[in-house]
Amino acid sequence: MSVVDYLNTIGVLPSFNFRAGVFDGATRVNGDEMVRRFKIGNTACFACSMACGNICLVKEGRFRGTVVEGPEYETTCMFSSNIGIDDFSFVVRANYLCDELGMDTISTGNLIAAVIEAQERGIISEEEVGFSVKWGSQDEILALIEMIAHRKGIGDVLAEGSFGVIKKWKEMNNLISQVKYLEQSAYDAHASECMALAYGTCDIGAHHNRAWPIAKELEVGEKWSLEEKVDLVLYHQAVRPLFDMLGVCRLPWIELGLSERFYAEAFSAATGVETTIDELLFRSDAIYNLTRAIAVMLGIRRKDDYPPPRVFEEPLRGGPNEGKRVKREKYEKMLSIYYEKRGWDENGVPKRETLEKFGLSDVADELYSLKRNNQK
Ligand code: SF4
């Protein structure tokens, strides 16, 4: 089953700017549709036998002749269900344009969805955009992509990302799904407290790369205690960055179920340095503490560790999770448990002894002297 089908079935496929969890047109933009009508080959990173990349070609219609490496799931969602389009050839075209113009497909698609909703609600006027843009408006959405790249008209503000957009239109804070001004990945968090916490506490913002606990929670963990849910997020936040630390791909772990212990053995074999998975996970946690300490020095605190407002305030529409949202009180409890387990204080600041445990005494010295100076 493709990721589009899977997420649509479990009701967390972001649709219409993260307001619905299912999309009627999912079967027209899923993996079967891609393989049947668009895929012309595979591509791989150097020396990888999994070759998970796809090459797609639009063979007919107005986008005929467009070739792209992809589209990956995230791109597909941001340029289909989340903007109300059920045409895979459009997804290929939007992916191609973003690649050629050097733009991230998640951030671009996410922001355009927010603009569509903003125009619908009268927050951003037709004059400000330059035209009317609605769910499914293919030409206008493609025009917006170009306007962002060339900073034309409203594209000049959108090119600043959610930070610039919220600065200009304060109400957009409730419409754009972002954390720490990084636009959210293509997994809805209304029905998953773990995913909400993963987005809220991810060091780079609302991204799934540090933790993707949503599937496990929805499949087996919905009735878990808050502590068990926090443990799942912490486990992911230790394992997934491990792959970045080693400079290897995480997909064999995700897709083939390769044990994380294999990575410790591979590291030892490649470097001659004997290690264990526990030692590597400890190093991974050390990095999480280091990046947090740097973020704290730059002003990040508990106030920045929350998922997008609509995850709390606007119940999800449609599908098996109809009406679900994360309860704020529960989230506050989870966040406090999370900080405690990490060895951070109630405001999300790593404690001196925590940093010292990871061999980061110099970082602790800097962080705490800075705190003292700021308090003077
Ligand atoms: S499995 Fe990983 S290394 Fe292999 S092609 Fe895919 S992304 Fe690249």
Task: Describe it.
By secondary structure, the chain is mainly α. The protein has 2 domains: 3-183, Orthogonal Bundle (Aldehyde Ferredoxin Oxidoreductase Protein, subunit A, domain 2); 193-375, Aldehyde Ferredoxin Oxidoreductase Protein, subunit A, domain 3. Helix content is 53%, strand content 5%. A 3-stranded antiparallel beta sheet has the order 1-2-3. Helix 10 (193-201) crosses helix 12 and helix 15 packs parallel to helix 19. The model has no long low-confidence stretch (mean pLDDT 94). Residues 44-45, 48, 50-53, 249, 251 line the site of iron/sulfur cluster.
Blueprint (SSEs and pairs):
Blueprint: H1 3-10, H2 31-37, E1 39-43, E2 53-57, E3 67-69, H3 73-78, H4 88-101, H5 105-121, H6 126-129, H7 138-150, H8 155-158, H9 161-168, E4 178-179, E5 182-183, H10 193-201, H11 214-221, H12 226-246, H13 251-255, H14 260-271, H15 277-297, H16 309-313, H17 328-342, H18 352-357, H19 361-375
Antiparallel strand pairs: 1-2, 2-3, 4-5
Helix pairs in contact: 4-7, 10-12, 12-15, 12-17, 15-19
Largest sheet: 3 strands, antiparallel
CATH superfamily of the largest domain, called what?
Aldehyde Ferredoxin Oxidoreductase Protein, subunit A, domain 3
- The rounded Rg comes to 21 Å
Query: How many domains is the backbone divided into?
Result: 2
Gross CATH architecture of the largest domain: Orthogonal Bundle
**Which CATH top level class of the largest domain fits?**
Mainly Alpha
Which oligomeric state applies? single chain
